[in-house]
Write a structure and sequence with these properties.
mainly alpha, disordered N terminus, 4% strand
Length: 342
């Protein structure tokens, strides 16, 4: 749920700090109260057209249900032929207004800026300052949309071309209704990132190979990882202070000491990269042992469809255990204990 309160100020560049670069094309330009740019993507033409097509399908279904229900209800109450042509046209106009204007206004006001189509695609209408859209902005963007965008009651072909041009040229992909109402459409669901992958600093590769990392716990390694993945979003002073503090903690639990002459972030990156390499090596050894002891887990054999082959519940033994020899009981009157005669 999008409940973060944000301000309408654009992102500002801070001296000594690189420009914020949101992941995955974050271009909404929304800034939180703590002056942190939110990682939010605006919805462009493709996703909005897909949401519109779904909403048109929903509106058509609602129109059929509404007209059918109204016809049955009026026929049962007033009788067939009780309404003249003018009354029928008036009722049809009311129905069209309810479908084209009432549907998006009600959905965006009561469902946090999401119609059925936007909910399916993962879009949401918000104000330009990031706040929740209310009744007045929803009504304004809906009226402008019906008049000059879709279905376009005023010069349909010309207004369609103008609307598409405005969406393609606007930095945040807003249409005419958004510009009039002070709103924009954002992606409510963002793709998950692949995460930060540590890389080895070449001058420190030989030193990192000799490190003793047994006392480096997961919590400290996670703190180093988070710092290195967020260095571009920190100011120079904050980055230097945090790097020195974390390197002091890491240097206290690792040995031997590093070669001098390199910054603290290089040491942290080398330590984290070496830890990552050793973790991958342990995982590879574990998988190798597993595939040797139980090949079925590593490479399941392809079985023909419909075959009745049953896999063993336990791995087959390399050397079968010899079974004890059976001894027959002695027979009374025999000359030998095993009942044989000489």
């Amino acid at each position: 749920m999008f409940t973060v309160l944000v301000t309408a100020q654009p992102p500002r560049s801070v001296p000594g700090r690189p420009a914020p670069s949101g992941g995955y094309g974050a271009d909404a330009g929304l800034v939180s109260g703590e002056a942190v740019e939110l990682d939010i993507r605006v919805a462009r033409l493709g996703s909005r057209v897909l949401a519109l097509l779904l909403d048109i399908l929903v509106q058509f279904t609602l129109a059929v249900v509404l007209l059918t229900g109204a016809g049955i209800l009026l026929s049962s109450l007033l009788g067939p032929g009780a309404l003249d042509a003018a009354a029928l046209r008036g009722l049809q106009t009311v129905g069209v207004v309810l479908i084209l204007v009432g549907y998006p206004v009600a959905c965006e006001t009561l469902n946090s800026g999401r119609t059925v189509g936007k909910l399916a695609v993962g879009l949401r209408v918000v104000r330009t300052d990031g706040g929740r859209v209310g009744f007045r902005p929803a009504l304004t963007r809906s009226l402008v949309g019906v008049a000059v965008e879709w279905p376009g009651l005023v010069l349909p072909l010309l207004t369609w071309a103008v609307g598409v041009t405005v969406m393609l040229t606007d930095p945040r992909g807003r249409r005419l209704g958004d510009l009039a109402a002070g709103t924009l459409v954002i992606h409510d669901r963002s793709p998950a990132g692949t995460g930060y992958v540590p890389t080895m600093v070449p001058p420190l590769a030989s030193w990192a190979a000799t490190l003793d990392l047994t006392r480096l716990d997961d919590g400290l390694a996670l703190a180093v990882r988070q710092l290195l993945s967020r260095t571009s979003t920190l100011t120079r002073d904050a980055r230097r202070r945090l790097t020195r503090s974390l390197w002091a903690e890491v240097a206290a639990v690792t040995s031997p000491p590093p070669p001098p002459g390199l910054p603290e972030w290089a040491y942290l990156a080398a330590v984290l990269a070496e830890r990552h390499v050793r973790a991958r090596q342990r995982l590879a050894r574990t998988r190798s042992v597993t595939s040797t002891l139980w090949p079925e887990l590593a490479a399941p054999a392809a079985e023909a469809p419909g075959s009745a082959a049953v896999r063993p519940a336990v791995p087959a033994l390399a050397h079968p255990v010899p079974q004890p020899a059976l001894v027959r009981p002695a027979v009374a009157g025999s000359g030998t204990p095993n009942g044989s005669t000489r």
